[in-house]
TrEMBL record:
Gene: moaA
Listed EC numbers: 4.1.99.22
Residues bound to S-adenosyl-L-methionine: 26, 67, 118, 189
Pathways involved: Cofactor biosynthesis; molybdopterin biosynthesis
Residues binding GTP: 13, 94, 155, 256-258
Function per UniProt: Catalyzes the cyclization of GTP to (8S)-3',8-cyclo-7,8-dihydroguanosine 5'-triphosphate.
Name of the protein in question: GTP 3',8-cyclase
Cofactor: [4Fe-4S] cluster
Length: 325
């Protein structure tokens, strides 16, 4: 399947809930936030219907996200159902890790092949300052267990920003030293609460790492479905990755679409463009017609994001918690 710019679209990210058991300072606002009511969230049956249409259009890879996906009851059942959809070749998961350790074996058995675990510091006090929760020990236990499991890949995603966690960069990178864990440093995007932080660029992080560990060498291989660029450090079992959506725009090679928890098919993270799939599903649309309309929508996927440009009416104004990770 190609969009109107001849990009191959084979990757669907599905947010199964907007609820999370953390309140990270760059994602969740202070105080209570209004989460979706249960009936506003797509049911498993509705998600599977979307997956079937997506697979017919050429989607091969599914990423399950939230909020925190593991807070959704009976989540493992959804994984099994997606795995059974003809044409879906890989299902991966992004999680904050708090609930992962106890569910890991069931998730692997159900069909999860790769897990990305979000972690921004290895200091317990700093972890609580960023997330508003005590729980670093649970996340680290989950990472260790995942690294020694049958998963194809384990990745740690670290959002980095000035005056947030730059002092944690080297410690986070060391997670890749003794285990085959790939640590990715993600440039904070100016969406929602992320606008209040100053980005740290890839070159600055590389300089910090090289001062501590020696030369980083570019890695030519591919380690997943996304746009990360990977580097190697001598003596490290895992790779160091960078996702720099703002400073190194990779929109010309974007292969993904997103389904929000409330059933909106987003064609670009930074755009309101898309399709109200929930309305179609609850109006009794047939599988064939749903497939056709999703295909038509994908043709109009925006050419690129507009981070750094003057605000436009069509730019996304929701926070990341509402969009999905």
């Amino acid at each position: 399947m190609e969009d109107g710019k001849h990009r191959s679209i084979d990757y669907l990210r599905i947010s199964v809930t907007d609820r999370c058991n953390l309140k990270c300072v760059y994602c969740m606002p202070e105080g209570d936030i209004s989460c979706l009511e249960k009936e506003e969230v797509l049911s498993f049956e509705e998600i599977i219907k979307v997956c079937k249409s997506a697979a017919k259009l050429g989607i091969k890879k599914i990423k399950l996200t939230g909020g925190e996906p593991l807070v959704r009851p009976d989540f493992v059942s959804l994984v099994r159902q997606i795995k059974a959809v003809e044409g879906i070749e890989e299902i991966t998961l992004t999680t904050n890790g708090l609930l992962l350790e106890k569910q890991l074996e069931d998730l692997i058995e159900a069909g999860i092949s790769q897990i990305n675990i979000s972690l921004d510091t290895l200091d317990p006090k700093h972890f609580k300052e960023i997330t508003k929760v005590d729980g670093l020990d649970k996340v680290l236990a989950a990472i260790h267990k995942a690294a020694h499991s049958d998963l194809k890949r384990v990745k740690v995603n670290a959002l980095v920003a000035k005056h947030l966690n730059e002092e944690a960069i080297c410690a986070l990178a060391q997670l890749a030293q003794h285990d085959a864990i790939h640590v990715r440093f993600i440039e904070l995007m100016p969406i929602g609460l992320g606008k209040q932080f100053e980005r740290i660029g890839k070159e600055e992080i590389i300089a910090i790492l090289e001062e501590k560990f020696g030369i980083l060498k570019p890695y030519k291989g591919k380690l997943g479905n996304g746009p990360a660029q990977y580097w190697e450090i001598e003596g490290f079992k895992g790779k160091i990755g960078f996702i720099s959506a703002v400073s190194e725009c990779f929109c010309d090679a974007c292969n993904r679409i997103r389904l929000t928890a409330d059933g909106f098919l987003k064609l670009c993270l930074h755009s309101k463009a898309g399709l109200d799939v929930k309305h179609l599903l609850r109006s009794g649309i047939s599988q064939e017609e749903l497939t056709r309309l999703i295909g038509e929508a994908i043709h109009y996927k925006p050419e690129k994001h507009h981070f750094g440009d003057a605000p436009r009416e069509e730019d996304e104004d929701k926070i990341m918690a509402q969009i999905g990770g």
